[in-house]
Amino acid sequence: MATELEELLQFLSFPSLQVKKGAVDIVRDLTGSEDGLQALTYYSQIVFPSLSCLLAENKEISEPAAQALVNLSENSELSIKMIEYEYSPTKKMRAVLPTEISMKEHIWNSSQAGALVASVLQGDLRVLGKAMSLDKIVEPKRKRLATRCC
User: Fold this and answer.
1) Using an 8 Å Cβ cutoff, are 47 and 9 in contact?
2) What is the signed CA dihedral for 70, 6, 77, 31, rounded to 10 degrees?
3) Does Nucleotide-binding show up as a keyword for this record (predicted)?
């Protein structure tokens, strides 16, 4: 039978944003206490990938996930586990990339790179975020590697 903490951690990948938000807030709060950190240490192989996947979510969910990861890293035992944790090795991440791309994909991604540079120079965070999220070559291929925890 699953413990309450195991059940809570399952909600980090729940489709409902409200449920996911509630779960990540509770996990973040747990990382703020020694007792919470101790409890999460036992489930570090679930906690790290689950919170890492949430970093790609909207700000409402990604911020508490990032705060939880920072809090976890302040515990020496957990920070060592974080360093040892392998989410997806570089070799695996490179293996899913295409060896050739179409001219259409190349032009699209090049224009996004230009928009990215322009947004940094102009200080336009909206365009920066949009340019970063519209990759059509690398991220769509790598996304399936992350779905096991998201």
Assistant:
1) yes
2) 30
3) yes
